[in-house]
Amino acid sequence: MLNLLKTPIGRLRLTGFLEGTSLLVLVFIAVPLKYIMHRPELVKLMGPIHGLLFCLFVFITFSVGVAYKWAFSKITWKVLLACIIPFGTFYIDKYILAPQSAMHEGDEHLN
Known about the structure:
75% of the residues lie in helices and 0% in strands. By secondary structure, the protein is an all-alpha fold. Helix 1 (8-36) runs antiparallel to helix 4 and helix 3 crosses helix 4. It is elongated and about 50 Å long.
């Protein structure tokens, strides 16, 4: 897990995992609790956390896209779209970010 923090793509992958997890908790646990059980507490807690992680994910996506010269039409838009779809960040991690990370394994100089 700590190796993820060494590269920009690694930090994006970690943020994607956290953002994706917070979205799942919000959509599949907090919102049903709010509307079915009339318990809004978890939404009040997770909403701002997810919002912060979402903004961080978008910012890091753009910065990684610039650093690695990703073509917006090929990679960046897919990564950005993934963060609004439940399970999207996990899919993107497996099929785009992990291969990109392996391709740029020695790029610690991009920090």
